[in-house]
Amino acid sequence: xxxxxPNANPVARILTASLVGTTIEFFDFYIYATAAVLVFPKLFFxxxxxxxxxxxxxxxxxxxxxxxxxxxxxxxxxxxRKGRKATLVAALMTMGPSTVAIGLLPGYxxxxxxxxILLALFRFGQGLGLGGEWGGAVLLATESAPPNKRAWYGMFxxxxxxxxxxxxxxxFFILSKTMSEANFINxxxxxxxxxxxxxxxxxxxxxxxxxxxxxxxxxxxxxxRSVVPFADVFVKHTKAITLGTLATITTxxxxxxxxxxxxxxxxxxxxIPKSDFLIVQMISMLFFGLGIxxxxxxxxxxxxxxxxxxxxxxxxxxxxxFAPLFTTGSLLTTAIFLALGMLLMGLTYGPIGxxxxxxxPASVRYxxxxxxxxxxxxxxxxxxxxxxxxxxxxxxxxxxxxxLTAASTLTLIALLAAKRLMxxx
Length: 425
Known about the structure:
The chain is mostly helical.
């Protein structure tokens, strides 16, 4: 990425705007993931068959991943045509109201089948907003970075993931410890959804203070904007979008195995108390957060592609020991398992945003990076909790690990094929 135009945004403002926005977006996204396991099966679906209700709830969780590419295409178009700043604000204002609406939604006992339908609709809105949010935040950081610190700047929006998760899990943990199970199901779970409106206003304030990135301004000056960025991505940059998507699959799959699936399986099949599991899961997020800056430093020093290859090989090996580490029901063993998995998650997640942004030219960068990321979400995460639960139930936990190793192999092949695209620039 060539961004020689002077940057009007102070570094602190750039990094804060990229970090705060993604933290809010991921907080909104993760409170749904937690509620989809702990609350929604009981509240929004028929309770006669708990297993079916859980699977239906996880299916609505998956819906947002199918909305993400649409959001990436829509917001990406305006991000590449009209600017990064305005598009980032619009993405934030799409996801925020959707999250608040979920918190106000009556349950199945009150409005019947309309409850899961509306839940799915608002979940779609969450995915639509996040599809446009992530790419813009990454570009805000990377297009403003010095050439030798692309990955370091680009890791700030990535830090929004563990911070957002800690905030969401911490909120649910406090609620579960301060109110009865009945009150938590009746109204307590709604508090973080409704309260997220305050976070959205904070993010909106910060983003209205920034100006456009140097790369976008240079593109305007040179009259290089694409007329239809979406079409150009698939026609002119087919290799980049294909390899970028495949290279990101394992990042998504690992994360949702280590969060949504493990929470569901650990509290049901392994009978670990919900509050205890949430504690060790929050601890594991610290390892996730630790892995991100480590990977960014290594990526700037040795190259993004090489860092991602190393991380993927380690994840392949982790898949082979998945079952032995997660079958005992011991809280200590589970904590070690989650910490190791999330540290690997940080190593692969930290440089992936910078890597995807770097393989597309500025004229289609918002659209291309966002689409690669969100399409990988469909392939690597949308059905992961559902498929993992099915595999574990029918064949055993070992097959969940094999699932992860197989996906990692596909990612490794894509990364090796994309070596020339993912170069330091």
